[in-house]
Specification:
Layout (H helix, E strand, L loop, with lengths): L5 E7 L5 E7 L10 H16 L3 E8 L4 E3 L4 H9 L5 H17 L5 E5 L2 E3 L1 H8 L2 E4 L4 E3 L13 H6 L5 H8 L5 H6 L5 E2 L5 H11 L6 H16 L10 H4 L1 H7 L5 H9 L7 H12 L2 H13 L5 H17 L2 H11 L17 H6 L16
Parallel strand pairs: 2-3, 3-5, 4-6, 5-7, 6-8, 7-9
Antiparallel strand pairs: 1-2
Amino acid sequence: MRDRSLLVEERAAKGGLRLGYATLSNPASLNAISLETAELLDEALSAWAEDPDIACVVLSGSGEKAFCAGGDLRKIYQAIRSGDSSFPSRFFTQEYRVVGKIHAYPKPILCWGDGIVYGGGLGLLAGASHRVVTEKSRFAMPEIAIGLFPDVGGSWFLGRMPGRIGLFLALTGLSFTAGDALFLKLADYFLPTEERKSVLDERLGNLVWTGNAGADRLLLSRSLREWARPWLGTVSPARTRLEFDRIQSLTDGDILPEVADKIASGPVSIDPWFAQGAENFAEGCPLSACLIWELSRRTVRMSLKEVLRQETIVAYWCGARADFPEGIRARLMDKDGNPRWSDKNIATVSIEKVEEHFAAPWAPEEHPLRDL
């Protein structure tokens, strides 16, 4: 296999059918998604969708720390620095294609979202038909810290969270836990980490699959609900639910500077979570904040396919500009924590600069996701 960061296998199940297993398998990078990984996952999903003997797909990550920490930013940075300026766009396009395929998949997909589920990892999880989280699950869309924006469909699922929670999480990059994921409709079932082997390696194979997608989705839903029932009382409270009114207050504004002022002067002295959010926003990329704001406005009535096509355009320009590689440099490569953003603050980001990120570099019939 040309990229061992994805393990693809098939396992026998009762009734003569099979299950397809795709395991992100680069624990050293917290199972980050490379271009090759996304291509292989796309190939596997396409093949399994057409195979009548595959009843269900299982998507998970190897190791104990993460399902997936997002895209392989180091490889993106190295490609940019080596002069391959088209690499970021190729990567984003392939990643978004996979995410779109998962959302529209004709068969049940069980995603085991254990450990770190950041960025692109959350994009993969969000689209699966059956999403399991654990007591170790930690979620975030922290792209504002690296000069990007919550992509992989993030504009779509963040915008559909209760109230303005999605906007708040995008601007602050704050992490949240399993209880939040269930409340925010990013997950469906809670099971402890210790149940993974039993569920993925034993119980799934012992179910009586039919090969009928509708019946098999129902079978999987009922089974997971039964397996999760003993653990219902152990789920941590949803911080975003408990703090809903406060989050609404902090994001109540007609323009981004109003919201920025509220986040900066919010209850930082009494609550470490909000204090971290204010710090993340203050240190984040000003252009990213403006793109997040504009995307939240533009995508509110878009379909998922329309959102992914829009994000492809914005990501293209992010990959072609200075802030994105600079954010990766400061956060992951040199780790000096001092990114030199192209704008001093959000007040200095021009409207024209933001608008440029929404101008397609291709004709409509040439959009790389026109066939999504």
